[in-house]
Amino acid sequence: MPTESQSPHLPFGDNTHAEWYGKDILSVKQFSRADLEYIFGVAHEMRGMVERVGTFDLLKGKILANLFYEPSTRTASSFMAAMQRLGGSVVAINEVKYSSVSKGESLPDTIRTLECYTDVIVLRHPEVGSAAIAAEAAEKPVLNAGDGVGEHPTQALLDLFTIFEELGAGKVDGLTITMLGDLKYGRTVHSLARLLTLFDVKLNYVSPEILRMPKDVMDEVSAKNIPQTEYTTLEEVLPETDVLYVTRVQKERFENPADYEKVAGSFVVNPEIMKAAKQEMIVMHPLPRVGEISPDFDTDPRAAYFLQMEYGLYVRMALLAMVLGKA
Ligand code: CP
Predict the structure, then answer these.
(1) Local structure of residue 253 (DSSP, 8 states)
(2) What is the reported pLDDT for 17?
(3) What local confidence, expressed as pLDDT, does residue 256 receive?
């Protein structure tokens, strides 16, 4: 990405957030509360624009490289839709086996290639730290769309935007947030727990013993003096929960398939279980789900997971506009 001195004059007057121009988005650790307020303000505007006009030309002439080494439905398609709704276009590499990666090309060389043709790169890759390696190789901004079991920062931003929009922006402080399921391999909960340390929240982690939240994430949360407690059953914490964040057990990350079979289906959220929860709370899930939320619950007003993925479009529109100097 360009240094401060290399940044060209920006065409939007006295915008005070021009510092986002050319920046990489690699980890939630790079955000402050003020940054979140700004990003969510832009995302809120994007929502209004999509509802009013659908598509507009803010990023006309800009091209996104969408490089996915792992499967994705939501992240890949929402980044593509975000760029297209902003009037830009997309080079999509969703099946790296059909690219020169299958001939042995390294990640840095693939990134250097794509930035010859495009203005911003979105990367999903199975290895922790891959987005940072890509950013090191690139002059153009790199957005981390998930690096193995590491982070998924744009997901955490859309998760928090969902909480802001559904429960009220001023109401995050004081919330009890319960994360349920595969907390070991779920990069979305790693990023969200870290991001929530910017607020005065209480975190509960409910998981099978072998899928507990990693120690490094818990140490970071603890260093910010955020209370966090581990449980093995949901019933203990459901009545006090304001946000129930459900995750899929990530079969593809298990070394031993027998271990997966032991914990698959450990938790299922359904209308019966949810009788014990508050009426004023929300249930979230990064999706895809594979049975951990019963479809019978989808029509409950507390089910926020489909709205959550819609909000991903607005947050990703905001991020693309920001790093390309147009927000
Ligand atoms: N939430 C999420 O990352 O979904 P996809 O894997 O479909 O992108």
Answers:
(1) G
(2) 59
(3) 86
Q: Closest ligand 1 atom to the C-alpha of 77?
A: 8
Give ∠ CA 236-239-203 in degrees, rounded to 5.
Answer: 70
Pull the structure tokens for residue 196: 């929530």
Domain containing residue 283: 153-309
Instruction: Tell whether 299 and 261 lie within a shared domain.
Output: yes
Let me know whether 115 and 204 are in one domain: no
Verify that 78 and 165 share a domain, yes or no. no
Say if CB 180 and CB 211 are below 8 A apart.
Answer: no
Q: Do residues 117 and 82 both lie within one domain? A: yes
Count of the separate structural domains present in the chain: 2
286 lines ligand 1 (CB under 6 A): yes
pTM equals 0.92
For ligand 1, the distance from its centroid to the CA atom of residue 235, given in whole angstroms, is: 28
Joined together, the tokens standing for residue 151 give: 């982070």
30 lines ligand 1 (CB under 6 A): no
CB 294 within 8 A of CB 265: no
- Spatial distance between the Cα atoms of 195 and 43, rounded to a whole number of angstroms: 17
Say yes or no: 104 and 209 in one domain: no
The reply, when asked if residue 190 is annotated as ligand binding, is no
For 255-304, where are the E strands, in sequence order?
282-284
The predicted-structure confidence for 122-169, as pLDDT tens digits, reads as follows 999 999 999 999 999 999 999 999 999 999 999 999 999 999 999 987
φ and ψ of 66, to 5 deg: -110, 95
Q: d(Cα 113, Cα 105) in Å, to the nearest integer?
A: 10
User: pLDDT value at position 5?
Assistant: 37
